[in-house]
Amino acid sequence: MGKPETAAITNPARRRFLQASGGTAVALSLTQLSGVLSGSYVKSVMAAGKSVQYGGTEDLYRQIWNWDKVSWGSHTNACLPGCCSFHVYVKDGMVWREEQAARNPASNENYPDYNPLGCQKGCSFHANLYGDHRIKYPLRRVGERGSAKWERISWDDALTDIASAIVDGLEEMGSDGFLLDPPHEHAGTVSWAGAQRMNSVIGGVLPDLNVLIGDFYKGIFDTIGKMHTGYSADNLFDAELIFLTYSNWSYTMPAIYHFLTEARYNGTEIVSISPDYNPTSITADYHVPVNQGCDAAFWLGICQVIMADGLVDEAFVKEQTDLPLLVRADNGRYLRQTDVDGGGREDQLYLYDLKAGAIAKAPRATLLFDGEPALEGQFEVTLATGEKVAVTTVYALLKAQINANHTPEQVQQQSGAHPSLTRMLAKKVATKRTCSYIGFSSAKTYHGDLGERALMLAMALSGNWGKPGTGWNTWAMPADHIELMMVMEKTVAEGGLAAFAQMEQALATKLRAEDPEITEELIGVALAKEMTTAMGLVPPAMFLYNHCGYKEAYDNKAWQDPTLKKTFGEYLSEATEQGWWQPHHLRPAPGKHPRVMMITSSNPVRRNRSGAQLLPKHLFPKLKMMFAIEPRMSASALYCDIILPAAWYYEKMDMTVSITANPRFAFIEKAVNPPGECEPEWEIYAAILKRVGEIAAARGLESYGDHFGQRRVYGDLWSRYTMGGKVVTQEQALTEMLAVAEATSILPKGTTLESFRKAGMLQQVSFGTGFMKHLVANDYSPDKPFFSLAWHRDKKITYPTYSRRAQFFLDHPWYIEAGEALPVHKEPPKIGGDHPFVITGGHPRHSIHSLHLNVPELMRLHRAQPVMHVNDKTAARLGMKDGEQVRVYNDFSDFEIMLRTSPTVAPMQVVVYFWENPQFKEWKVYDRLLIGQPKPLHLAGGYEQLRYYLFNGSPGPSTDRGVRVAMEKLPV
Ligand code: MD1
Fold first, then answer.
1. What is the chain's mean pLDDT, rounded?
2. CA of 601 to the centre of ligand 1 (A)
3. Using an 8 Å Cβ cutoff, are 354 and 342 in contact?
């Protein structure tokens, strides 16, 4: 460790900025500054212009190990599993190198440890800090939007321009005039909370991040009423059979891939399901080569064999699922109390009790039932009207449907999986502890929900959840400390949490009065819905449809499932008339426009499918001001009116977000000063709000109207954001966040900023006191692997679904009409037109999202330019060669790209991993033709689990896997 840094305040721009944000002298004295790096200094060092004197290569080598100091670091760039703790080596005020701190113990001596944890992206991150792409000063556009002509301006001018536009927007449109493009956690936990806090305080509109990016697993949500489940990586060590589907761990999970390998020492077998023989399939025991988007058929074939061979875990399905519930033969819907008693609850459903020889109410408060439910059979029931109707079970219906349509031989036609493979794997699923990893591509597939429902049916029939070595992942994270920081009015010390708890208690009392059998989890759902509305969150597909030019594509019936007879717009109108979607879900109302858009920690022009084509044409002209808070020039920042320079990792204090695979939190120190006039985002948001108050006051404006008809006082915005001026700086925000984490039992008692800094890494203590613990439904213990849903299995707690069970029969009228009441296989629609190839994608090996695409060390490992992987024989058939440029097109758009041929790609498939817009000719990024067509069925509501709250529910506008394309050779 090297010499300590002095705390002199030498940067007048920083001093002025802190005054603007309302930061205090205390914050200044805590700032570690050792000189501001100029671009030219960095360049000369990188170009070796300032190299140390050395006499030989040995001396140069020794200099590499000579540091001024070593700090804790990590990266919050929304990767999985994340939370890798790094040592960051600093010399002369620059980060020169980083390496994994390797401080990740095993849960106990029976499991592998997580070390070293950290991938090539993390190990080369520092290259991002220094380069021409770095934004160092506030910039104002001087040319047309997107023309890349800028002038450097002061923070003062930038804040005034932005705040004036915000005030104009709020005056013109009320709070709907402010739009926050949904930030991801790239900018850090503190910023993530801060941006959404800022939006909550303003009352602006925030399209839902998780649904927008295509990370919402609709099929899982439909089945168990929740999506956030997961397991720690070492749970794989307890599995005997692991399915990797829609995923490519060797690219996307390099840091924990070793758990798969280690599990194989136990005799565990790995199955990779993928249309291509992908880089992960290569090391699997079995590869299931499914047709793209047809996984449901494969899983239904598995279910057929399990049922036909009598391998069903009957005790599990009778207790945990809706399979024994009764369905009327006459109308094809559940038998309900309203049918039997002529009144009572519509969602009180029935079983047939073999012990009593009569129908019995399926308990709603518990999964325990002291009779013996029938799984199959035909029964007669007398309704309140005196009419007699035949009823049967969901299981019987399912079995008949699956036997008729999904024998392994039929499945071969539907999905491509050979019958012998289906039969062999079905027997393994039924007899082994089976764990699945459903990659995020499932959530990005039009009928991915059907695949998820069918997979879960196979897991239900074999009893494969809620016990060690089982389950499936999505993602779950202890998040009380982040979410509460978005909405708390006061600090923890001032009773901020108590006020929130009181609100929660009042809601629980009201809901219990309405339904004495309501579970704590369902109360959590109701609270989440209220928070979601208060935070201004809106389902993204409707926002894109109404405001961003997606109407034409979404309403194109040729690009929809043909069983859905109406257009997206028609379904939306009907759903709105039914009251399933309220005005607060559809903000801003059609015809009303957002006026100011803030982009922070997101890149909508790259991230939104076809965003590069539609946003500049349809959304941006409506905006009087769009500004980005960015550490580097991104495709979206290039369109902005103003760019504010953000401090990046290692330049600000922060902590990571823990996702279940690695249940730890890493501390991020401020190892170096940011270059130029970069500032941490929390403070930037504060500065903007302070200036909004000042400008409104100068104009004599007191308040504006929010979406809910309330007046919001301009002069209160900064004070509300900073909790009365107590949480202004990044350090204060992190300190407060830790106080929430400690109070909600996410972090150990006694955790402070200092203790965290000393430890560098902290193990999660629990999933907190809030909603997340119900979602994962298991006790977390640091010395054991974690898996979800045990509370349902062990404590018999019901699921947050309409039937209160894991539900495979959705008797919603729209689902019945679409033929999707039970899990089925459907052919994917030809989105993009009738073209011969399906395009798939995935996250790349050498970058996390768009962040590392221009890191020189990593570019040396690939072609450093966009490529599309194509089957070698297909290419030869078309007269195309590896390395040639091709034009890829469909009915919506086109792009040009280099071909990379490989026998591992399926003949009908082409694969493009992530690339960013400026890497393409004329910035015609590949995303342009992906559209992201949402499935209109997912507009259905009015049925417990068909609902929307933060990160969950509503149609996904990112279903890009399987879009149809064609390609042609370009003239050389
Ligand atoms: P996002 O990342 O957040 O805009 O997009 C998220 C996305 O990558 C994700 S999570 C998914 S699942 C999705 N996947 C996906 C796919 O599989 N295929 C296709 N075709 N599209 C897909 N799209 C989404 P991106 O593009 O990396 O941009 C993040 C921006 O954040 C900036 N940034 C920071 N900003 C601030 N203020 N502070 C920071 O510390 C910071 N770090 C990064 C970054 O520069 C970039 O512009």
1. 94
2. 7
3. no
